[in-house]
Amino acid sequence: DGGITQSPKYLFRKEGQNVTLSCEQNLNHDAMYWYRQDPGQGLRLIYYSQIVNDFQKGDIAEGYSVSREKKESFPLTVTSAQKNPTAFYLCASSLNRDSNSPLHFGNGTRLTVT
Amino acid sequence: AQSVTQPDIHITVSEGASLELRCNYSYGATPYLFWYVQSPGQGLQLLLKYFSGDTLVQGIKGFEAEFKRSQSSFNLRKPSVHWSDAAEYFCAVGAKENTGFQKLVFGTGTRLLVSP
Fold first, then answer.
1. Does the beta carbon of B64 lie under 8 angstroms from any beta carbon of chain A?
2. What is the pLDDT along chain B (116 residues), one digit of tens a residue?
3. Distance from CA of B100 to the nearest CA of A (A)
4. Chain B residues within an 8 Å CB radius of A48
5. Cα separations (Å) of A98 from A50, A65, A94, B9, B74?
6. Is the CB of residue A39 less than 8 Å away from at least one CB of chain B?
């Protein structure tokens, strides 16, 4: 079955360490996205990529970095510069960049930084 | 700027009763509108979408939503709620940025509790 795989499901890190969250899709979608979810705040866009080797900052990109070297993969690195990294991170993809192209979501990674 | 408001943080409904979740949006042009559902610790699943045409759209799991342009609303309804419907529901609007990128703007969600 096609879908989006995020790993790991739970991740624990010490403050000051960088950490990379994995996101892989086999839907042959062009566009991929990273969202951050905090209680009571809905989903906020961190980064998005419309095609391979191209990505753009979303609304809350500070302290994060991404790469898009392959169509299937869009890893997110949470750097030590991110002031409040503990959150639930969701990766998504869509067929293309148009807003009428529904998002397909992975099951998320819960990151806890202490 | 585009925005989505879901005025109810929590709603409790008895099993078998009807449900309506409210969503209001702010967007200058004709919007693309979506409802997603999220079970605890999971990703979001698309329930239904509105692009154009018939203002009453049907989705999965027996849900429907009605687009009302005059009220800038896209409320989600279900005639008879099942215990398995307990989850968090997100309304979203597709919005075009100055760069040409079209992104989804999400509301803050409504948590549905179903009582026996």
1. no
2. 788 999 999 999 999 999 999 999 998 777 889 999 999 888 999 999 998 888 999 999 999 999 999 999 999 999 999 999 999 999 999 877 676 677 788 999 999 999 99
3. 9
4. 101, 103
5. 10, 23, 8, 29, 20
6. no
* Residues A80 and A16 sit within 8 Å (Cβ to Cβ): yes
User: Are residues B44 and B36 in contact, defined by beta-carbon separation less than 8 angstroms?
Assistant: yes
> Looking up tokens 């409790």, which residue turns up?
B12
pLDDT at A1: 64
The answer to whether the CB atoms of B44 and A103 lie below 8 A apart is yes
Helix (H, G, I), strand (E, B) or coil at A46: strand
Spatial CA neighbour of B62 closest among B4, B109, B19, B2: B19
Task: Name the residue among B44, B49, B108 with its Cβ closest to that of A41.
Answer: B108
